[in-house]
Amino acid sequence: MVYIDKYSKPLIKGPKAGARVIVMDVDYKKKLFASAVSIALVFSSLMLLTGAQAGAEDDLEVSNLYELTGNPPPRANIPYDFFVGWKNTGDDSYDATVRLFSDCDQDDLADESSTIAMGAGEDGSVTLSVTFTEVGEICYSATIYYALTDYGEFENYINVEPETGDADLWIEFDMEGNQASPGEEVSVIFEYGNEGNSRYQAKHIQIFERESDNSGFS
Question: Residue 217: what pLDDT?
């Protein structure tokens, strides 16, 4: 049996005094209702987040940007070609163009492709040209242009040489000893460099063997 005194404190009397009595707050229904509303709001937020669709800023990107293999170093005031890769990682298709800039602030548009139908999940590449006017290490960039906005910027650096210049090449070598028998293997260390103001792309270093009167090298 449960008695309530004037201080509203539950008292337990009787043979089962050890039994517990649970007193519920009179506002528990309101709390349950508030919890239900909170849960509903949380699920609504999750549904909104799940239902949100990605746009061009999430789908379109420049995947690669570099100079074509085998090309000589770029020179100032001379057009230079670059490989630009693009990718559409989304589920929608976009009609967009690929842009190449001679800087990384997208202030100087150097070249732009024709319109490309970039299908969902597709990728591709274009070759674009830029003419640098400054010498030294230059930051250049590429973007995908869609709906008057540039997306998926890719930045890279390249060393631009003067329009005219000279390469001053040198080479030295160090051999283990100065004598060798015919057919004997000899280790040779080559050091080379360029002290000019223009790079030189050498395909290989050619070694000439000069015959002498003795069995060694001279």
Answer: 41
